[in-house]
Amino acid sequence: MSLKIRADVARVARDIVPQWPLHSFIAVNPLGGREGIDFESIRDSGIALTRSTPHYLADVQSGRITRENLSAAVIERIPELRAHSVRIGSRTISAAKLIVAELTELAPAAETVRASQRSDVVDEMTAKWVASFLDPHPLWPMPHRRDGFYAAWRALARHDPAVSRSARRAARTLPARADDAIGHALSELKIGTADADAVLRRQLAGLPGWTAHIKWRAEHVGDIDVVEYLAVRLSLHLVLGQPVEDATPSPSDGDESPWTRAIRLVEHLHGGADRGATASVARVLAMHPVRDHPFTFQRAYELQYAGELLRTINGTADDADTADPVAPRPDIADTAGTVAPRPGSAGTAGTAGTADTVAPRPDTQLVACIDPRSEGIRRHLEQLHAGIETFGFAGFFGIPIRFASYNSSSAIDSLPALLAPHHRVTERPRDPASAQQRTARLGAHQAFAAGIHAGESTTAAPFAFAETTGVLFGAMTVLRTLAPTIAARCAAALTSTARSESSVTVADAFTLDERAGLAEAALRMMGLSQFAPLVIFAGHGSTSTNNLYESSLDCGACGGNPGTANARSAAAIFNDPDVRRLLHERGLPIPSDTFFLAAAHDTVTDRIRPLDAHLVPPTHLDRVERFARLQHTASDALVRERAHDLPGASPRRTPDRTRARGDDWAEVYPEWGLAGNAAFIIGPREITYGQDLKRRVFLHSYRPETDPNGAGLETILTAPVVVAQWINHQYYFSALNPDTLGAGTKTVHNAIGTLGVLSGQAGDLRRGLPWQSVAFAGRLVHEPMRLAVIVEAPLDRISAIVSRNAVLRSLFDNNWISLTARENSGSAWYSYGRYGWSPTRQSNIPHHEGAAQ
Amino acid sequence: MNGLTKMTRLEVVVSGRDAPPVRELITSAGATGYTSVSGVSGLGHHGQHSGALLFNEYDTLFIFNNTPPPEKASALIDALRELLKGCPGVMFVADTYVSRPDYFQ
């Protein structure tokens, strides 16, 4: 075995980001392997890092990007230009404005990045063999599969009628081992050591979707790896006589000389030549090459949104002329005539202990996922009732588990992809006999469904199958098409999916000390120290029909699964008297009358359904019932709000009409998921309370005073922010590169089991999100912006955390995401840069253009 | 030395995202065992590294400890050096002595 070959392959495959299978879709930054270098320095052929210049110019025209935003972006990128100006004729123009003038008034023709249209016989054949090897439900299993991918291919290639006789003969001479085959192919193809890395990289780039999935599979399943994949590819090149030196030319900078640009700009501004001015202008323009123009536009585009968002945040210094943010809005008065106070405005934090007055104890607290979709339901619930307080926390509620339902033969990893599952949680039915009966019925139903599927797909059976069952299934098809809600009810009745009452077995999965430790960490991270009688953990999931990407709409913090198992586990831990005793000893007492309830938030219907209702004590039944009524009203209001944006929906229709999209097998837009996500706010709820953030912001509750050593903030920045960044970049690059880093249109997708999808019947496995997740009717719905992380916490604490975590240094220093922070409400905002903190410039940029300086 | 058997001790420190190929190379080299510790903290060429993170194993440092017999050590050392050309990380190689050589084949 050649260890060196394996090391070479591992090294060149390092930047490939694994792709999870569809059934547990994990949003990833497809360029995440490059986070160690500056965002703008990536130069991959066929990959767009920004939109094209005409799009940005259209935004300038519409006011979506202002000249102030552009000036701010220029100065942020080139700080030395801040105090620099140039004299042209009688005018003195700041350097930033010169650059803005070139950007907006003399913009060069856009260079559209196009995906290289590769059509390669080796790609086609490799894709065919990989799909045959990995298909989880093949009609005819691939012979020799158990020997591994390369060995199985080598055994079959010598009989493959799709290749020439000479190729089949050549296949007989290939080495038996995959790593030896790579060495053999490189040698026979005359690839020298110096070129080997580049050749291997190009081979991996040939089918990036399959390569990314194989990398995931090597680590999680182990039946194939990148070495075997490359061995097949290179061996195919060898036996087919296909050359491998198909280097794609790297994109050229296309920069005009600064002098040429300066001549044009001076002529434009001055109306004639001025050699002295031209030299000065050229020196300025040289600091901002043409290649940087899209990045400046992109940053201005992001600054505009971030600036608006900062102004929205309560307590921002320049909002003194607005209404007192502490005062309740008149439209949130409840029916009893009281009004909703800002949560935590006085004493909610409990441990702060400095407030003169103590806020009344809330009636109910809802802990929802940080997912931007939760912002909507939180806002509507808070507006409905003064007694509801909400918190944002990662949707696995700090309980990372592998979960197996009592009636399931498999388990799900319900935890962030940053963690490996170490704790296995199951369910204990309250009535085992009844649960056994239900499980048997479910098993019979699944066997029936499998039989139907076999009848549909077995080569000889479809005609007989259609003859015998066509009437029944034809009627069902008509019903599913014309009355999807009724069809869904019929299917649910036939399936009998009702579950037995059960409880989760967290006490078997975690020691008492582990449970108390997780509970303490969660409370300190979200600043929850004063407890309502009812605290609800709402895990979220999404229910839709005929949607291969349904998992992409589930909880990202739960590994692309609904967060219900984690919510139930969290509730069980917090209701555990032994855990509460330890929490009390650690200074976090929970009142004896507080009950923690798990719930499920469906993001298609926006209903919140209580779970494990049989565990609710009689003393809390009324409160749970009251919350159920409130969420019903809040949910209706939110669904009407969402109907403004959903294609084909209307806020004038009943909310149930909009909810029915989840049952419609022809609906490609059951919900918008996280489209539009753009920011991540870490701070107490009162800084965003009452503000409509339009479901675009991840909201993580945090109070520095409950996190004395900063460990909670470090966890938020190194886990939820990292996962949110993956999601943000998944949407970003899927929107900008629908054909390469996105999955393209859903309409031509074919599934390979639950591995992924192909566009059509063959080819590469598609990566990223489908076009229908980010756009409608050819127009982007998702605004591609890098995540703006906004924190309210001591700056020195944030600095210390960033400086000791390489992942954060990479993300912030290399401009993958941005960081803005302030010490507390009312203090100034500061932006983090490679050289430390600087006052956020958004409001410092002069408002009027062209003024002499 | 006191009847002990001389062997080679390898220690590799890499980030969590680079741990799988290190693990794979060690096992591909025929090692029957290794030790890995996650959440390693320290200060190095790429700056400071926090220790264990509560909810992120992917971005913490791992240290691998492997003690192959001399005849296997050379190829593994070469392979790990090739791997480390493409990612942050360090490797330490030292002679060591073990009391149960049959555990380290």
> What is the residue-mean pLDDT of chain A, rounded to a whole number?
88
What is the general shape of chain B?
globular
Portion in strands of chain A:
5-15%
CATH architectural grouping of chain B: 2-Layer Sandwich
Q: Which spans of chain B of ≥5 residues are poorly predicted at pLDDT below 50?
A: none
How many helices of chain A does DSSP assign?
28
Strand order of the largest sheet of chain A: 13-12-18-19-20-21
Instruction: List how many beta strands of chain B DSSP finds.
Output: 6
Helix content of chain A: 40-55%
For the largest beta-sheet of chain B, the strand count, sense and barrel status come to: 4 strands, antiparallel
Q: What does the oligomeric state look like here?
A: heterodimer
Describe the structure.
The complex is a heterodimer of chains A (853) and B (105). With 853 residues, chain A is an alpha/beta fold. Among the domains of chain A are: 284 residues, no CATH class; 64 residues, no CATH class. Helices cover 41% and strands 11% of the residues of chain A. Chain A has 28 helices and 21 strands. Chain A has a six-stranded mixed β-sheet, with helices on both faces. In chain A, strands 4-3-9-10-11 form a five-stranded mixed β-sheet, with helices on both faces. In chain A, strands 6-5-7-8 form a four-stranded mixed β-sheet. In chain A, helix 3 packs across helix 4, helix 8 packs parallel to helix 11 and helix 20 crosses helix 22. The longest helix of chain A has 26 residues. The C terminus of chain A is likely disordered. With 105 residues, chain B is of the alpha+beta class. Chain B has one domain: 2-Layer Sandwich (Alpha-Beta Plaits). Chain B has two helices and six strands; from the N terminus they run E-H-E-E-E-E-H-E. In chain B, the strands form two sheets. Chain B has a four-stranded antiparallel β-sheet, with helices on one face. Chain B has a two-stranded antiparallel sheet with strand order 3-4. In chain B, a hairpin with a 2-residue loop joins strand 3 and strand 4. Chain B is globular, with a radius of gyration of 14 Å. Chain B starts with a strand and ends in a 7-residue tail after the last strand. At the A-B interface, helix 1, helix 25 and helix 28 of A face helix 1, strand 4 and helix 2 of B.
